[in-house]
């Protein structure tokens, strides 16, 4: 009887305060978590984790040495992935970030790559921007990946020294000029001789990630791979 009453209270609460899909904003049904079944089944998965020399890896070819790169979803304007990223970054959907991070972690784990990662490094926000937003979305995505790969997240290894302008409307060269030399590493002893998985929300020109890899590579015997929630061409 108590179980029935509890379900009634839960259903009544959801009627007035419904949980909504992170991609289409429709109310979630029983058994749905963060994304409805329809949106989940229509997500534009890249399957890059199963492909060596994939488009994510090619972005960094000849620019910075990495071991592996993958992105979970293709990004297109006004499509599902953009809505998910918007909700994560601007609508305080923190658990959606962790949930999609788990999906990214599962995709990496399912690929049976030859790589064994020692730790995850999220791309940092500047302190002022993180305080304004209330969280770093890349850290939350990294937390989701970590629960699947069962490795630690080192959140304070890379520090952003300057609060740079948004990269959104800049050319590739402008993005690099905007981000060049704005990252530094701290507590470097803990990452020496390790294979690190660098995590961000979206891969576009690769300038931000390249700058982070360059900062990490200043330390002794570091291998770096890259994973992002989405990739935009």
Textual characterization of the structure:
α4 packs across α5 (94-110) and α5 packs across α7 (137-149). Helices cover 39% and strands 15% of the residues. A four-stranded parallel sheet has the order 1-6-5-2, with helices on both faces. Strands 3-4 form a two-stranded antiparallel ribbon. The N and C termini lie far apart (55 Å). It has 233 residues and is α/β, with parallel strands linked by helices. The chain is globular, with a radius of gyration of 19 Å. The protein has helices spanning 2-16, 37-41, 55-60, 80-90, 94-110, 127-133, 137-149, 172-179, 207-216; strands at residues 69-74, 119-122, 158-160, 183-185, 195-203, 223-231. The longest helix has 17 residues, at 94-110. The protein has two domains: 1-42, no CATH class; 43-231, Rossmann fold (3-Layer(aba) Sandwich), CATH 3.40.50.
Quick description:
Helix content is 39%, strand content 15%. The protein has 233 residues and is of the alpha/beta class.
CATH topology of the largest domain: Rossmann fold
Low-confidence stretches: 9-17
Order of helices and strands: HHHEHHEHHEHEEHE
Number of strands: 6
Evaluate the radius of gyration: 19 Å
Assigned CATH class of the largest domain: Alpha Beta
pLDDT averaged over residues: 87
Distance between the termini: 55 Å
CATH architecture group name of the largest domain: 3-Layer(aba) Sandwich
Share of helix, binned:
25-40%
As a percent range, the share of strand residues is: 5-15%
Largest sheet: 4 strands, parallel
Label the overall shape: globular
Count of helix runs: 9
Helix-strand category: alpha/beta
Number of domains: 2
Order of strands in the sheet with the most strands?
1-6-5-2
């Amino acid at each position: 009887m108590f179980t029935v009453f509890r379900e009634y209270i839960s259903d009544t609460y959801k009627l007035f305060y419904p949980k909504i899909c992170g991609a289409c904003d429709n109310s979630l049904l029983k058994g749905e978590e963060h994304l409805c079944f329809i949106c989940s089944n229509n997500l534009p998965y890249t399957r890059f984790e199963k492909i060596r020399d994939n488009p994510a890896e090619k972005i960094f070819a000849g620019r910075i040495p990495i071991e592996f790169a993958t992105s979970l979803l293709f990004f297109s304007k006004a499509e599902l992935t953009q809505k998910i990223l918007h909700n994560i970054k601007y609508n305080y959907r923190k658990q959606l970030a962790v949930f999609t991070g788990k999906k990214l972690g599962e995709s990496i784990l399912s690929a049976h790559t030859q790589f064994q990662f020692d730790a995850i490094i999220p791309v940092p926000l500047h302190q002022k921007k993180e305080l304004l937003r209330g969280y770093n979305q890349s850290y939350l995505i990294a937390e989701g990946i970590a629960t699947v790969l069962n490795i630690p997240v080192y959140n304070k290894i890379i520090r952003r020294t300057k609060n740079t302008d948004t990269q959104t409307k800049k050319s590739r060269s402008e993005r690099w000029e905007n981000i060049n030399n704005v990252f530094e590493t701290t507590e470097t002893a803990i990452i020496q001789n390790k294979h690190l998985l660098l995590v961000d929300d979206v891969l576009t020109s690769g300038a931000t990630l390249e700058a982070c890899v360059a900062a990490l590579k200043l330390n002794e015997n570091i291998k770096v791979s890259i994973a992002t929630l989405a990739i935009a061409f």
